[in-house]
Amino acid sequence: MTKRTEVTVRELLLVALAGALLSVVMHWPLILNLGDTIPKDLGDPLPQSWQIAWGGHALTEQPFEFFQSNMFWPEPDSLAFGDALIGYAPAGLIGEGPHAAVARYDLLFLFAYALCFFGAYWLARELGLSPLGAVIAGVAYAYAPFRLEQDGHMQVISSGGIPLTLALGVRALRLERPWLLIAAALVAAWQVSLGFAIGLPFAYLLALLAGVAAVLWWRSGRPAPPRGLIVAGLAGVAIFAGIVGLISLPYFRVADAYPEATREPSDVEEFSGGLEVFILNSDENWVWGEATIDIFDEVKNPAEKALFPGLLILILAAVGLGSSSFARWLRWSLGGSVVALWILQLGFQEEQGWLWPYRIIYDVLPGWEAIRTPGRLATFSTLALALLAAAGAEATVRGARRHLAERRPGPAGARRWAAPVVAGLLVFGIVVEGRGLPFDPWDDQDQPAVDEVPPSVADVPAPQLHLPAEGGEENRRYVLWSTDGFPLLVNGRASTRPDEIEELITDMRDFPSVATVERLRAYGVRSVVLHTDLAQNWPQEGAELRPVEGLPVSVSRRGPLVIYDVR
């Protein structure tokens, strides 16, 4: 194994700075267009920008009704209709309105990648790797190819808390520092608070690791650990369970009240795939995208099935399995974890009649039935591969040094450059394979411009219904724009959509009419905001020309908006 050198505060500060700079470079020119452009697409990032903004609003205005958001009125616990990014709520205290919401999202997106790099680096160092190997672990975890297609899912890319928790835990046990166990518990709870799509498997991973540690402790003769670690460990478990339990309560209420919140086996099957998922790349991948474009175009829900771990990462991980950088038990534990997670990432297909491991977990583990995307477990297999790749990188550097020593005996000047040169080439290869060339003018990765914000309707009587509303894209815009004052909206965008609201929106196809206005009055809607510039090809196209004589509504205009005040 590599001779251990202790991690210092200065080293961690430098690594944090390097992670932040690398994130800025790899997502250039996002930093220059904060609030005007957004990573990946105009899909989930828009409502997720609203989620973070709502978190800040709720902390100051209604902290004890945090989950009673302004969307999907009048449904309770509407923030729990999807992953809520609660851990980012403090950032929502800074700035107001849609532009600030997008700028905040952009900065947190860069932070998420920086934290993935930082957490994986620190974990690798705590497991005994050198700074060189730890850098490889950081870039392999943060910039593996599968993440490219997940850029539109903040709750998925925000996984830096996973290695950071493990790093704090390893350091606490290794150095017998009880307070670090408390810190690990707090970071773990924060990670879960960002979303259960990653947080729930992480919680089960922590329980599994605790179980393995207990078995090893029992088999080693039950040695008495320091009293401080015992107290801190129990306190950490209580803190983690208390925070996660409190966050879980509204999700349990939603699961009980809305059958549509539970993922049926058919829902999971749509996001499950065959072995081709492990070679499938995002169509935006600079190196491999063209090679798998035909598969990408044919696969259903390809964004959740592009799970290629990276060829260079796989090669280094294979080398790492046979290296001496880690103890044998750790190397083979990491390798076995990768294989097990790959099997789970396939999900299941009922018609094939096999005993799928993922189906067993789906049926047995509490809460797992709410997760529909098996491929997101790649977050965990990528971490294991990154650690093995880091060990393989160290072995590669040692081999390069030996080769130079054999070819050039004598002064060691040239050999001193072997480590940084080889490490630099490996880092370059990993990030290029995963993200493309920084500052590449031919890079076709999009950072689309955010739509211009329409005139404010914060003063329009609420609850409001915005039309057209049958398309997900429009509702994403409405919730983002509602960060201007947070008026109550019937509209909403989340993975769980209440059937009653869906029916109401469907009934509005011939609005305004006697039947639709009476339906709105019975439901309690005070205002309808018609976005004429978005209504093309929707049933409400030309609705502003429909007569309203005799209807209990008054009409006004604000730019492209036609506002109907339902009396």
Beta-strand level of the residues, as a percent range? under 5%
| Succession of helices and strands | HHHHHHHHHHHHHHHHHEHHHEEE
Main β-sheet, in a few words?
A: 4 strands, mixed
**In whole angstroms, how far apart are the ends?**
76 Å
Number of domains: 2
Number of strands: 4
Structure notes:
By secondary structure, this protein is mainly α. The protein has two domains: 9-435, no CATH class; 464-566. The protein contains 20 helices and four strands. It has a four-stranded mixed beta sheet with strand order 1-2-4-3.
Question: Main attributes?
Answer:
567 residues, elongated, 4 strands, mainly alpha, 2 domains, four-stranded mixed sheet, 4% strand, 20 helices
Briefly, what is this?
With 567 residues, the protein is mainly α.
Detail the topology: elements first, then pairings.
Layout: H1 9-26, H2 45-61, H3 97-126, H4 131-142, H5 154-157, H6 161-175, H7 178-193, H8 196-219, H9 227-257, H10 265-270, H11 293-298, H12 311-321, H13 328-345, H14 357-364, H15 378-407, H16 413-416, H17 418-435, E1 464-467, H18 472-481, H19 499-506, H20 514-523, E2 527-531, E3 553-558, E4 561-566
Parallel strand pairs: 1-2
Antiparallel strand pairs: 2-4, 3-4
